[in-house]
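Problem 12. The chain below contains 210 residues. Write out its predicted structure in token notation.
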Amino acid sequence: MPNAFKTAADGTLTAADAAALGAAAKGCKIVAFPTESSYALGSTGLIKAATRRLLQIKERSTLKPLAVMVHSVDEAKKWVEWTPLAETLAAKLWPGAVALLLKPTAQGRLLTFPEYPTVAIRVPSHPGVRAALAASGVPWVYTSANKSGQPALRDGAAVNSALGADIDFLVDGGTAPEGEATVVDATGDKPRIVRPGIVSAELIQGALTA
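Solution.
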């Protein structure tokens, strides 16, 4: 069974819990945690063994790259080639359930496999998860907490029941919203929605004019 942590009603974690989870993820442990869009599984993005373990737990093809979470815009800029469009969208939509698809920097190539030209990256709005990300000092690769082809799991008890034997840590934050993060290609001058999600196209377009 995983080591379990519970968030406060406002989604925060104690500093000690955030530090423990950050150290776990940095050390290649698999952490299940709530997000703005169901629960996710994550671990350090800098060690390929962690990525492979996530894919194995997920039963997901290696042909599908994992997305990345970081705790701040400044941190994101270390790993992806920042564009004016990314700056505009991040200013209005981060932290939040929007992943920006961007080209990796030389350092960012560490987060993905050579055959993938882009990285989907986001800053989550969940305060406990963001604190754990900051405490870890590394970007996390992540994927939804479910087996491939199955519905995303939305509460800690369901994650523990389905995946508890495979994961190391579980952040129980109660029930998470249903849906997926919206993925937006921000490599060019105009946003292109690669995967629709809980942030609508109208909100994304509105971020360009607000």
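Discussion. The longest strand covers residues 39-44. Students who got a different answer should revisit the alignment rule from Section 12.3.
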